[in-house]
Amino acid sequence: MGAQVSQTDYEWVYTEEPHATRRKEILAKYPEVKKLMGHEPRTKYIVAAVVLFQILSLYLIKDASWVTVVILAYCLGGTINHSLTLAIHEISHNLAFGHSYPLANRILGYIANLPLGVPMSVSFKKYHLEHHRYQGDVERDVDIPTEIEGRFFTRTWSKFVYCLLMPYFYTIRPLFVRPKPLTGLELINIVIQVAFDICIYNFWGIKPVFYMIAGTLMGTGLHPLSGHFIAEHYMFIKGCETYSYYGPLNYLTFNVGYHNEHHDFPYIPGSRLYKVKEIAPEYYDNLPQHSSWCRVIFNFITDPSIGPFSRIRRRMKTDYEEKHIKDVQTPNGKTHAD
């Protein structure tokens, strides 16, 4: 059902990703942008408030009907849990406590993870930072769909299924594309999460556990907030690989819609990304952008010119080039480290 996707391979380019060049130009022209770098003190309070709200929700729905639980898991739990995944995204850049307090950031990541029902905080960080550093590199950037995804999800019905199953692909893809050994921090993440889930089940039963996990899976699947997964880097215009969105859903997603700005300056917290655009509007106003994440999802599913292959792909860097890669510096001049 639906027309066949016309694109049968990635868009191959042999140029560097655009963000490092634009960052350098903006900092040279507007050095005051560097003052925006640093942590956002309010993040820890927002995370604490949202986690407490979700725990209260778990208690309140323990005796609700299954129909009510499913509806709330999608509408309320899915929205809040998706928001928490983007809090974890902020925390992965050490933007909650700053680069001098990596352990505090990790602990807050564990806390933000609790209502999700599934451990992901630490695993997300170890792959996401490579997405920034190696954008488009099919071996290192696990955000890029695999060739199997590109060849299978080629029609309207299958792209609809693809959007439904988006969280599964994001979870499973790294295990095949770029497998890494389990770290101690990941093990702690797993133990804390499983212990929390067991406690919720023992005290309040299966419905709250379902609400958590189903909310996470539905909220990061075919859900309005999930439009950002497609909007950020799928090539809707030939040659353009990153897009921003400046609409109201940014209030629920830590301004992740300011995605060009985020990739240009990954150490500026979401709460201050709008200031980058205000300071240097000539670098962003004329870039292609999305006005609706829901429309992005609809267009992805129905437009035969767009599919999982609609991504820009780069060759891997040579060993010589790799030795000369310099990561983005933090405000104190140190490279990013955990």
Automatic annotation (TrEMBL):
| Occurrences of domain Sphingolipid delta4-desaturase N-terminal (ranges) | 5-43
Keywords assigned by UniProt?
Lipid metabolism, Membrane, Oxidoreductase, Transmembrane, Transmembrane helix
Which cell locations does it reside in? Membrane
Give TM regions. Answer: 45-61, 67-88, 182-204, 210-231
Which SMART domains does the record associate with it? Lipid_DES
Q: Which GO terms describe its biological process?
A: ceramide biosynthetic process
Chief place of localization: membrane
Q: What is its EC number?
A: 1.14.19.17
Q: Does the keyword Transmembrane helix apply?
A: yes
Q: Show the GO cellular component annotation of the record.
A: membrane
Annotated membrane topology: Multi-pass membrane protein
* Molecular function GO labels: sphingolipid delta-4 desaturase activity
Pfam families, alphabetized:
FA_desaturase (PF00487), Lipid_DES (PF08557)
At the top of the EC hierarchy, this enzyme's class is: oxidoreductase
Similarity comment text for this entry: Belongs to the fatty acid desaturase type 1 family. DEGS subfamily.
Protein name (record): sphingolipid 4-desaturase
Q: Which organism is it from?
A: Mytilus edulis
